[in-house]
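job 3f2a | input accepted
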Amino acid sequence: MQFQLKHTKELIPLKKDSNLRTWLFWIVIIFITLATGYTTEFDVRKAILAMPGIFSFIAEDFLPPDITVVPKFMESLMDTFYMAFISTTTGAVISVVLALLCASPTSPYRVVEFTIRIIASALRNIPSLAWTIMLVPAFGIGKTVGLMALLIGAIGSMTRFFTETIEEIDMGNIEAIRSVGGSYWQVLKCGVLPQCYPGLIAWTLYNFELGIRASTIIGMVGGGGIGFYIQSTIKLFQYDQAMMAVLVVAIVVLIVEAASKKIRELIM
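job 3f2a | predicted structure (268 res):
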């Protein structure tokens, strides 16, 4: 009985400390939110009052969408799909190699691991939109710029995703292969890749979904594809045509997401 009382007395301060930390956390979050809102001059009242005008503008100018223009931008839509697909598949192949070189279980040298992590982080943290703007002077406006921007972003992102997938594998199989004299390539072939295969495929499909969305935005700044068409129609105040293109892109994204989900269910 004395032990139970002593144990209870020890738990009370811990519970109080936990509640105090929770309250402090939310106070800090609220303070930062209010501070950033004040700094950016965000006014909730103005935003709410502006909503009727926004909906009115969309209803009057963007709706109904012009269905007759669908054949005009189908080629641009397919260019967007092709850019996302090529950048994803090419980036996945390059990223697998880079991930094997920078993941802790498979990296041959620490300096190689550190160098690739730094490069991948730099590629990943610069938005594809910024890459497009920087590449336009070199390649000009068109699909090449969009493809290169998507590829650079895909390599940066998938290298990190693949690296984390490799580092989460069961090391028991690898140690078993090494203990019987297995070479580096035999470890990769028999111990690493079989465990990583589902994760690599899942992350590749996820990046493809992101590529479809990103390629649309990239096209608006000179990367080609459906984004360039949307930007052109908006500049010409042809909002009903732009709305039709946006709706078609949304449908394509939903189809790609559904297909990716189905494929992931089959391989996982």
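job 3f2a | The CA atoms of residues 151 and 226 lie 18 Å apart.
job 3f2a | closed
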